[in-house]
Amino acid sequence: RRPNHDSTDECPKRKPKKKQNVSADGENQEEKVTSGSDSGLRVSSQVDEYEQDTSDEEDIRNTVGNIPMEWYKDYPHIGYDLDGKKIFKPIRNKDELDEFLDKMENPDYWRTIHDKMTGTDVCLSDEQVDLVHRLQQGKFGDVNFNEYEPAIDFFSNEVMIHPVTNRPADKRSFIPSLIEKEKVGKLVHAIKMGWIKPRRPKETAPQYYDLWAKEDPNAILGRHKMHIPAPKMRLPGHEESYNPPPEYLLTDEERQVWEQQDPDERKLSFLPQKYLSLRAVPAFSRFIQERFERCLDLYLCPRQRKMRVNVNPEDLIPKLPRPRDLQPFPTLQSLVYHGHSSLIRSISISPSGQWLVSGSDDCTVRFWEVCTTRCLKTMEVGGPVKSVAWNPAPSISLVAVSYGENVILVNPGLGDRLICSATDQLISSYEEPEEVKDQQVQWAVPEGKAQEQGQRLILTHPKAVKQVSWHGRGDYLACVMPDDGSSLQVVIHQVSRRRTQNPFHRNKGAVQCVSFHPSRPYFLVATQRYVRVYNLIKQELTKKLMANCKWISSMAVHPGGDNVICGSYDCRLAWFDLDLSTKPYKVLRHHKKALRGVAYHKHYPLFASGSDDGTVIVCHGMVYNVTACFCFSSLALSHISFYSVREWCVSIFSPQLFGLIDVYIANHIYSNLGCIVTITLPTLSSSQVRKASSSFALTLHCPKL
Amino acid sequence: MGGLQKKKYESGSATNYISRNKARKKLSLSLADFRRLCILKGIYPHEPKHKKKVNKGSTAQRTFYLLKDIRFLMHEPIVGKFREYKIFVRKLRKAYGKAEWGTAEKLRGNKPGYKLDHIIKERYPTFIDALRDVDDALSMCFLFSTFPRTGKCHVQTIELCRRLSVEWMNYIITLRSLRKVFLSIKGIYYQAEVLGQIITWLVPYQFAHDHPTDVDYRVMATFTELYTTLLGFINFRLYQTLNLVYPPKLDGKGEEESRAESEEDYAMDSERYMEKLSALSASLVRVVSTAEAEEAELDHFPAEGEDGEKLAERLKARQDQDRQEKLFEGLKFFLNREVPRESLAFVLRCFGAQVSWDKSLCIGSTYDVTDETITHHVVDRPSLEKQYINRYYVQPQWVYDCVNARMLLPVEDYFVGVTLPPHLSPFVEEKEGDYVPPEKLKLLALQKGERPEQEEEEEEEDNDDSEEEEDEDQSDDEDELKGMEEKQALGKASSVKVTPGEAKPVNRQRAEQEAKAEEKRLAVMMMKKRDKYLYDKIMFGKKRSVREANKMSAKRKALDEASKANKKKKLKK
Q1: Which of A204, A358, B303, B355 could form a disulfide with A347 if both were Cys (CB 3.0 to 4.6 A apart)?
Q2: What ipTM describes this predicted complex?
């Protein structure tokens, strides 16, 4: 029947389906039409339902259906009519040219369309064209249809006298429903049988019972080991009262401070108020907030167990021997040497213990008798005196004084005349060696007034000399010329041979101070951070002591030779035991400011340190413990030294600003001396006077020296 | 080298802690639910010792929970309930969205709920544990019971809170275990001792709250949920220990009496009972009515390791307490309408007094103003027109001060229209060196049985003065010395001259003290660095407290002087 049925393999399956679909649709439509309830329609369908049917699907002229018409392209016919006869294609002899001509000439060409199903050209009538236009514009096809008709509200609020439909009520509306009856019967049966129960009212009130009826006091969960109970609320103090004592109310200033503070920083979270009676107390405006904050604390605040140190502060203080048991040590200020008009830089005590020499910024060196504080001699030199040192050999009476670039050796001419003359002889007996070596330091013998004053030798150095230090035997003298860049910082002079040598060829940092070892051939050099101990015989570095501080200021060697103390500008005092280690045996931080001088006592285990904070601290240092014994204050300290010649007298000299030298003497000498002479000067503070004065004091008023 | 290489942060404290976000993810809960769970289960963050280690090297701020705690939460059945509730809300929303009212109604009928009983039991394994933690619960319940019945939270919650707080107050009255009361500007603090536990709670004044906007009421509501459950169980147990009926019932007599009166005006039938309970004027029904017989003397046996002294001490404390409990016994109070009725009725009843008030003020009044046997009339107004001769008219502070002083204070200071003495906090226990206000000293003297008199005070003041003079003397000494020095400097001629020195009187004690101080100073200097730090810190704190105390006393002194001057001026005028 269909020509393409055999020719193509792809389509056959689809086509029958389509066909079926189409036919099914058709049937449906028929059914619809036949089952339509309107009797009027039925009448019309009886006439000829296909006559005016314009449905595209049901094109009855050609029965091929909705298929691509190209399939019939190669056949002479275009389909089949209702009777199954072939519909032949109209003979078309129009070619392109004819088409064109037709287009040009035929006025109805634009309304002519090609009907694919029949293969004919159809010329549309005016009505049809009009219809097409209307549809294109989106209007209704029917010209007469008014789409904006006034709406008639059918179901309005107005009650009509007639029913909407005239239909009589159904019978079922009169008769009880059988189905419902059945359902109700079932429910009733279920209720009777107890299958359905009425809904129980919800229990809103909580039920309480004895929850802890069976409590096990040992039942603590493992997790509770880490449990930290929440701290309780802080209990209120007097200031929270509605009627507090008046001192708890804030003054205006305090209130202002309180208002300016951040709420977190405030000590009190509220302003204390006073109300005259209870009825005047208003509601607390932050009550809910505070409760809420407490809630937040309870569940948001991380908890941590913190051990609170519950220590009696007295227990922290170390149990040290009582200073009284460690006597003797200096306790009282007893002597003041007055005379210098400027800062005293350095002091030194003669080996006999009778004399004291002091050098000051007022370009003078003064010699004093220790016991009487009498100034025996004043010598002017050519510059501020930096350092003085009395020759430690008891058979030589010689003092080294450094000022500027010079070091002068002075024979003070005090004490035993034999010793003085022997010293002079010793210096003058020098004979020039045959071959004169070129030395960095020039040795000169002063003449004239200087010679009369006692100056015996003048050593001119290339740089300013800061410190002089004698060897124990009194022949060698070390001078320090601090200079960061040069290798010539320390020179050692031999007085008897007037020879100078530079022991170091390499610069190892700025030298702060030097010292000879009291018993062994060692030479100690303190640079900024280290103390180097050189063996002078072997000419090698023996030890390098690490002071653990930033900048060493001073150094003292114990007369026994085993211990060294270093004071530093960063408030520390390092105590080295040379036998033990190169690290400090102990570091003491007693002072609040930079240390200027340290000193050892010759016999007693005492050492002292003077500092910029105006205090001198005397410590009793044994190997097992160090005890600070005494501390006194003075104005400004530059250099301190112990007086340790006579057994009964333990004293410390501390030169002060403005040319005073205070002497503090041990307490117990009262019993030996019987009386103490104090020289009170107007510059001394009253507290110092009180310290010095005692019940059996005799006051000596003396003029200014 | 054998063994596996140890990796960082795979053991130790890094694995013991878990950050909050991770914990939340582990439990697959929303933040709100996690918060609720933490509140209910009492899980709180921990601060690790080495935060950086726990934080895996990062120093970002993070909250850490113990991993054990979170694991413990995983087995909590309430988590399931939370999920059910979430689903319920979703369904309900859907039903509303589709306008299926029937479904919504049905759903609402089946609203999932949960109980916190097991959580209470788990958090507080023993009853004493629960009592120890009841402070916050009480404060919260008392606060919630004052909330308005609209907005903020469910009416049921408020009613429940009210009920529980009234029950608690009734219990305290029956047990007579109130110890201290404090009228602060925030509210009224009460402290009671229940089964050996000290419990403090704060009750706001009876005013409408100014509800703040920066408070999350959901958090508060969750806490309240927990606290009401806790307090309910505690109340039940406490009532049981006293053989009281729970829920509380009023004594037969009281009930009959109250029924006789016409009370329909006050409250609805359903609420009347609660109102009567909260009036706190009637005693409660006991299960076994042999309360009086039980009051017999208890035998005292010394506990192990306790010697006679301690026993005596304990007995004395016991007696004191008994005496305090019967402080207002036999006194008859009448409350004027302007005083805080509930608080006063509670306090007075706790110490054995009879209380009544005007009939129109509240339900449960037992006698009238005209009753001749009334001993004290509590008034808080500047003056009173009609006064009865045979009773004291006192201000409410008298009641509270008496309770705190554990004795009946002289009423003269508290009469109507009199300027009240300061109201002191009973919770402050002054240590040595703290500032003690003079009123407290007076009170202590009173308690010891001394009669304070004006003269004594003056004497004390004199003493103070003399001490100061001594101080001045010392400074005088120094001045003299200085003067001497100056004289010396001026009058010194250039000649040497020797004058006999004056023997100075040596103050031995002072010298000794100075020597000791010096010794101590040197020893402090010798301290180790670590000890020194601690020592300095302690000393700093001590100094600060001393400074504060000094400041307070100076302030007080200035104020007293000013007031004295004012008085004198007035007298002169």
Answers
A1: A358
A2: 0.85
